[in-house]
Design a protein that fits this description.
- The chain is an alpha/beta fold.
- The chain folds into two domains: 177 residues, FAD/NAD(P)-binding domain (3-Layer(bba) Sandwich), CATH 3.50.50; 120 residues, FAD/NAD(P)-binding domain.
- Helices cover 22% and strands 27% of the residues.
- It has six helices and 19 strands.
- The longest helix has 21 residues.
Length: 308
Amino acid sequence: MQEVHSLIIIGSGPAGLTAAIYASRANLKPIVVEGKKPGGQLMNTTAVENWPGNISIMGPELMINMRKHAEHFGTRFISGEVTQVSLDSKPFIVKTAKEELKAHCIIIATGANSKLLGCPGEQDYWNKGVSTCAVCDGAFFQGKKVVIVGGGDTAMEDASFMLNFTDDITIVHIKSELTASHAMQQRVLNNKKITIIYDTTVTSIQGDGNKVTGVTLTNQKTHQTSTLPTDAVFIAIGLLPNTVPFKGKIDLNDYGYLIVHDHTKTSVEGVFAAGDVFDYRYRQAITASGSGCMAALDAERYIKEHSV
């Protein structure tokens, strides 16, 4: 008969790996399905300066350390991406392109990916002035010119946060008015340090080979282009949660995020959530790790209570 595992963790970012550390120390012998991008978003970052205990650590190094930590306590890793799940009966079934796994309990920690502009220069200057996390990278641009792309709450939060470091902030928004909540708009509309350019998109990003030096702006009504010097471009146009395999099988909100109750429980008993796959508010590595800890503890209690 096929082995039924106590716990399968889907995802290997900070949430999934923290869950794996706690679960393996509890002798649950978890299986981690690493996903398409093992290590999550931090694998694409440079210096991380807000991880407690490390004044500065490279994102990939941090994730490698976390993986080794989980592996040390007995976590087993499976490469590949989950293509299908069956949650309507137990044991649960998790399928990848190569194998089928069964488990009494699942933690979903598949994260979310930031929407990108897709314009020339974006990938060339990624982590060289282009970022999707002002909270993570804003301190690197003390006294610099900053462009924030977007008009929603995240863009307003980024602009407000960047006021801690610079008084030269430009918001570029594709629409003729901001889409953020009224309260969030008020934080920036009357601030003289923040300029807002409406009906405009960033259509290319320029640099000197080492860092960003400017952006090309295109007005959506006149189609005229202009160049704006800048040292940083923070993209804040939304996120896409990685929940495609779970649609129709578990409750999601209108934006595709997992809905949780009682901290980490999903709508399916025995399935828990951790990290950015449900948390669209904080979206930090440390909060993802915290929820990974909580999900593992909840999974451990569930397994013991159900004697599985």
